[in-house]
């Protein structure tokens, strides 16, 4: 026993932790890579975006983002005719519901209450009795009322056509900001698109272009 403890004390920290069965804490990049390998591209992209927001020059994160975008574009090509909710099995409907809840929460954190409500209500297409979506809607209403934005939220009902118009505006904003060299604002506009349409081909291309322009501007500097 004494010899075992002595041997452990002489081991490097990582080796000793492994010997004791301790797991090293997963880094954000490792988590993003795990999501990517599990084909959970939405979560992989969101995690990678957070990394790049902290450090836009992170080359590993940039390379991973490129792989994620390529994978999402390929998935979009495969799903030219997406399944209707009634054509999905239970697991597929559950996955769609979970994705829309994640989008709604992300939009809520950004203060985009009308879009957050739109995303939360989408959940009921796939799971009509989803209690988590109901809870999120309650949170959206509570925060909108608290911030004095209830009228905007409840009187301006968002329809599919309005969403489409708004996405077009965000695309234009992103391209304009990128041309002006305001890459952070450009990324923010693209992220709003991807929260509502994670596999939007135009937004994915714009985002990849922004990353390339950022990289080129750093080299020029």
Question: What can you see in these coordinates?
Answer:
The protein has helices spanning 2-10, 13-19, 28-37, 41-54, 59-78, 90-109, 113-126, 131-146, 150-155, 160-179, 183-196, 201-220. It starts with a helix and ends with a helix. The chain has three domains: 26-77, no CATH class; 90-157; 159-221. The mean pLDDT is 77. The protein contains twelve helices and no strands. The protein is globular, with a radius of gyration of 21 Å. The protein has 221 residues and is an all-alpha fold. α10 packs parallel to α12 (201-220). The longest helix has 20 residues, at 59-78.
Average pLDDT for all residues: 77
Shape: globular
Q: How many discrete structural domains?
A: 3
How many angstroms separate the termini? Answer: 59 Å
Q: Biggest sheet, in brief?
A: none
Instruction: Give the SSE string.
Output: HHHHHHHHHHHH
* Strand element count: 0
Number of helices: 12
Helix amount, in percent? over 70%
Low-confidence stretches: none
Q: SS-based structural class?
A: mainly alpha
**Percent of residues in beta strands:** under 5%
Estimated radius of gyration:
21 Å
């Amino acid at each position: 026993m004494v010899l075992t403890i002595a041997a452990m004390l002489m081991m490097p920290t990582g080796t000793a932790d492994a010997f004791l069965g301790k797991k090293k804490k997963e880094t954000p990049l490792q988590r993003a890579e795990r999501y990517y390998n599990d084909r959970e591209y939405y979560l992989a992209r969101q995690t990678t975006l957070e990394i790049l927001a902290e450090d836009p020059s992170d080359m590993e994160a940039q390379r991973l983002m490129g792989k994620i975008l390529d994978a999402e574009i390929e998935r979009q090509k495969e799903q030219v005719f997406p399944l209707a909710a009634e054509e999905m099995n239970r697991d597929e409907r559950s996955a769609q519901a979970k994705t829309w809840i994640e989008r709604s929460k992300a939009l809520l954190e950004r203060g985009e209450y009308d879009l957050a409500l739109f995303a939360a209500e989408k959940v009921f297409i796939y799971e009509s009795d989803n209690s988590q979506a109901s809870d999120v809607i309650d949170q959206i209403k509570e925060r909108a009322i608290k911030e004095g934005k209830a009228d905007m939220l409840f009187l301006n009902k968002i329809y599919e056509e309005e969403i489409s118009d708004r996405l077009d505006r965000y695309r234009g904003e992103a391209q304009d900001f990128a041309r002006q060299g305001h890459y952070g604002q450009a990324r923010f506009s693209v992220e709003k698109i991807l929260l509502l349409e994670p596999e939007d081909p135009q937004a994915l291309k714009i985002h990849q272009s922004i990353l390339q322009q950022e990289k080129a501007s750093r080299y020029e500097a």
